[in-house]
Specification:
By secondary structure, this protein is mainly beta. The chain has a single domain (1-74), classed as Roll (SH3 type barrels), CATH 2.30.30.40. 15% of the residues are buried. Strands 4-3-2-1-5 form a 5-stranded antiparallel β-sheet, with no helix packed on it. The protein has one helix at residues 31-36, and strands at 23-25, 40-46, 51-56, 62-66, 70-72. Helices cover 7% and strands 27% of the residues.
């Protein structure tokens, strides 16, 4: 990873362009995570050990988090579909 990773102005990864999948930060088990919980984000880069650099859509804040801590947003379309699924599978 380069020295500029995690700084403001970091572009989204090629596999996650603007308008790509949105995620919601789901963990709130400590004080810092509680402030992040429920906020919408995009994956900037996937890292080793199941972590990811994410950018929150509301403030542009960048964090390195576990990929287990983020959930696909209901507002994000599934690959190959124009709209998010609703109802039972």
């Amino acid at each position: 990873m380069n020295a500029n990773a995690g700084r403001e102005g970091l572009p989204l990864a090629p596999d996650a362009p603007d308008g790509a999948a949105l995620y919601v930060f789901a963990w709130g088990n400590n004080a810092k995570r509680a402030t992040l919980k429920g906020r919408t984000c995009q994956i900037v880069s996937r890292l080793r050990m199941n972590s990811a650099v994410i950018r929150f859509t509301d403030t542009g804040q960048i964090e390195v988090v576990s990929r287990n801590a983020i959930r696909k947003s209901a507002a994000s379309p599934l690959p190959g579909q124009g709209a998010a699924r609703s109802g039972p599978l």
